[in-house]
Write a structure and sequence with these properties.
The protein has strands at about 1-10, 15-20, 25-30, 40-45, 50-60. It has about 60 residues and is mostly beta strands.
Length: about 60
């Protein structure tokens, strides 16, 4: 099941909602900002205890 995650764009600073499929495990991919269309490297991490975190940074 996809879980909604609010991300702040590292380019324009606007927040937007994206979705993360926790059943797929930790993952890294590039997604365009829904506001300014700049590329963002998204890192979704799942700890051994099941806690999730999201990191976003500019993709070049």
């Amino acid at each position: 099941m996809d879980d909604p995650v609010t991300v702040q764009c590292p380019w324009c600073g606007e927040a937007f909602t994206t979705f993360f499929d926790a059943s797929a495990g930790s993952q890294t991919y590039i997604e365009d900002c829904q506001v300014c269309c700049q590329p963002i490297t998204m890192r979704f991490l799942i700890s051994r205890s099941g806690r999730t975190s999201c990191q976003s940074e500019r993709a070049y």
